Amino acid sequence: MSEPEGVGSRGSGQEKAVGIVLVSHSRAVAESVAELAKGLAGGGADVPVAPAGGTEDGGLGTSAELISGAARSVDRGAGIAVLTDLGSAVLTVKALLAEGGELPDGARLVDAPFVEGAVAAVVTASAGADLDAVEAAAVEAYTYRKV
């Protein structure tokens, strides 16, 4: 039996890949940004991406449990890039990283714009890049000009 999409695959024979977690105060925003990023990466079928938006009851906010679960679901042994929207999402991820053991080894908070950074991270990860390259691509999204 194969594992469902998004479930960790360490030891399952799948190639190592950088996982990406998108943390927003809104479930709908996190899910939509994940869908957009995967779509713009040509489907991003090989990139494990998980949204972690809102609270367990569907409200606005952030949830350490949803973030931890999303991180575990995308862990493929090559590290995890965690992108956040703002405020308490950043603080929650920082707290999880500081506590140790709450996020898989190799999880990293990436300082990047949420939408553009997510697209850049997924596109770069889909090319087989390592965590440092995925982070660099996401951070570079700060320089994208619109006019």
What would you say this structure looks like, in words?
With 147 residues, the chain is α/β, with parallel strands linked by helices. It has 5 helices and 4 strands, in the order βαβαβαβαα. The protein has a 4-stranded parallel β-sheet, with helices on both faces. β3, α3 (88-99) and β4 (107-109) form a beta-alpha-beta unit. The chain starts with 18 loop residues before the first strand and ends in a 7-residue tail after the last helix.
Query: Can you list the strand order of the major beta sheet?
Result: 2-1-3-4
Alpha-beta content class: alpha/beta
Specify the helix fraction band. Answer: 40-55%
Low-confidence stretches: 1-13
List keywords for this structure.
147 residues; 4-stranded parallel sheet; 5 helices; 13% strand; disordered N terminus
Secondary structure elements and pairings:
Elements: E1 19-24, H1 27-40, E2 49-53, H2 64-74, E3 80-84, H3 88-99, E4 107-109, H4 114-126, H5 131-140
Parallel strand pairs: 1-2, 1-3, 3-4
Task: Quickly describe the structure.
This protein is α/β, with parallel strands linked by helices. The protein has 5 helices and 4 strands; from the N terminus they run E-H-E-H-E-H-E-H-H.
